[in-house]
Every structure is written in C-alpha cells, then in structure tokens.
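In response to a reviewer's request, we include the raw inputs and outputs for one of the modeled complexes. The two entities were modeled together in a single run.
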Amino acid sequence: MTKELEQKFAKELEQHQNIIHKVCRSYTNNEAAHKDLFQEITIQLWKAYPKFRGESKFSTWMYRVAFNTAISLFRKSKRNVETTQIYDNLKELEYHDYDDSGDKQLKLLYEAIYSLNDIEKALALMYLEDKSYKEISKTLGISEVNARVKMNRTKTKLKNILNP
Amino acid sequence: MENLENLKDLWKNQEDSKIRYTQDDISQMVQKKSSSIVKWILIISLLEFILPNLLFVFTDFDATKQFYEQYGLSNSMMIYSAIHLIVIVGFIYVFYKNYKNISSESTVKNLLGNILKTRRTVKNYIYYNLTIMGIIGINIFYSVYSSTEFQTTLAEGTSMLKIWVISIILLSLALFIFWVFYRIIYGFFLKKLKKNYAALSHQGEL
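The model returned the following structure tokens for the whole complex.
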C-alpha cells in the first residue's frame, strides 16, 4: 500500500476519529483499554481501506468496522474492569446527580451504555446517533423488524438503568 | 422514552474526546500488528491441525514398522494413513475457504457467523481425530491381544475381559483429556462470540 494512500487514510480518520472514540468509550471502561481498542479498529479499518469504494459514507463504513472490531474481533485485556463493578458504581450515584451538568450526565450515559451487552451497546449508540432502522439492520445483519424489537428492549433497559 | 430522546441532544453536543490522535499517530498505528481474535484463532487452529500429526515425526519409524508387521497391522495402517491424508487436506481446504470469508466489513451477524463457522471446521477436525484415534487404538489392542505372542506371555488364569476393560478405560481417559483440553481453548476464544451471535438471532434474548 502506498504512502499516499496511507496519508489519505490518516487524514480521513483524523477528521472522523470521534466516531471511533464514542465506540471505544462505550465498549471499554478505562483509558488503556480505550486506546487498545482504538488501535485495533484503526488497524482493521486500514486493512479494509483499499476495498472501500465510497459506496457508503466513510463514517457509515467506519461504524460497521468499528462495531465488528468491538463486538467480534477485540480481545479485552485484563486491564478491563468487570462490568458488574461498573454497574455497582453506577447504582451508588444518586439519581439527582443526573441533572447537575452535561458532563456528569454524559458520564452516566456512557456508564449505562457500558453496562449493556455488546449488541445492546451497538443498538444504543445507533439510537443516539439517530440511525434509521434500515441502517441498523444493515449494520447488524438482522431484519428491520428484529432490529425494532431489539431496539425497544435496549431502550427499556437503558431507561431502567438511568432511572432506577 | 421521553428522557432517552433528550439524551440524543446530550450525545450529539458532546465535546470531542479527550484522547485525540494526529495524522502521524494514526500512520504509526497502522504499522502495528493486529491482535484480533481472528489472528489468534488462525494460530490456534493451525497448531491444532499440525500438532496431532507432529506426533508421528517423533516416532521411531523402524520400530513402528516392525511392530505393525509383527501384529499384521501394516495394511490397515496404510489405509488409515491414506484416509487421514485425504481428510486433512479436505479440512484445511474448508477451513481456508471459511477463513477467507471473514471480513471486518460484513454485517456484525455475518462476521460472527463466519468466525464460528471457521472454528466449527476445526472442531469437527478435532472430533474426527479423536474418533480415528479411538478406532486405531481398538484396532491395535485387538491385533495385539489376539496374537499368539501376547497370549503366550500371559500368566495362567489372566482374564482377557479385564485387560480389555482396562485398555478401553485408559484409551477413553486419554481421549477425554484431549477433548477437555480442546474445549478449554475453544471456550476461551469463542464464549463472547457465541453469546453475541445468539443475541442477534431471533431466539436470542437481549
């Protein structure tokens, strides 16, 4: 692969890196694991980049590879704390904390997403990103009807976690 | 779901991540080696293909040949070897074909399905190996125990049934250890994938 292609890839990824950071923050619970996952997603994106023909938006394509890496390909390191531990921490926070500031709310939201299972995390992220059911079904590889059913369950679960 | 709708604004208006990478950082990252689960599955699978056959390399060929001739096992062992070779080539071909289908650009369900399918090939290969080892083991026991050489070495009154039972137990135990060892490796790598695949299927509960 040429240097030129690498530069083009690095430039596009630098511009769109927030998408990957959102995925990393949702699937990991510490900075080291976040960085490990970011690196693995970047490697997977780079490996697939020569085949990317621009049929879908760069960001849509990135989402798909990022979810695939987080859900299927990434081997969590021991640095990742157990999910239950995070969930317990989340429960300790009082509900009124939720309205304090945007930052705190966002932190709580990320912690709530982290407590979901891998597929639910993807559904929650795509819901928050306002993705259509068509795109969700295409990303996950399930029917739109199934996507709706699973999305409703995920939303209820997320709501229950945020409003215990 | 009113609260969740409000969260969409919070999500969209979030600041850029505190961790930021420059183009140079990204260029450096792409030079690094992947540590994906698929890479590990490939390494483990290839080892599983090679290891059972590697045992033969450390075998004393002359002694084995002599042993087979002594108990009239030469022909059947030749047939087993020929079948084994064809089966291995077949398994490696199917494994390679499945492995090539693994793509990070597939849908999540397809990717999970393809990884599991690739591993299923290795699983069947392991089961095939255990079966053939069992068959060959019994074949060898039978040939040895029914030979006059063996019969003459037996002390008077020794029960052949007892010898057979002990042999079968030992053989089953050896195969069981192989199987447990394999299940541990299999479970270690695939637990998460199987769970996620089930969650995406119709029956899967989220």
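As requested, we also summarize the result in words. The CA atoms of residues 83 and 103 of chain A lie 21 Å apart. Confidence is low (pLDDT under 50) at residues 79-100 of chain A.
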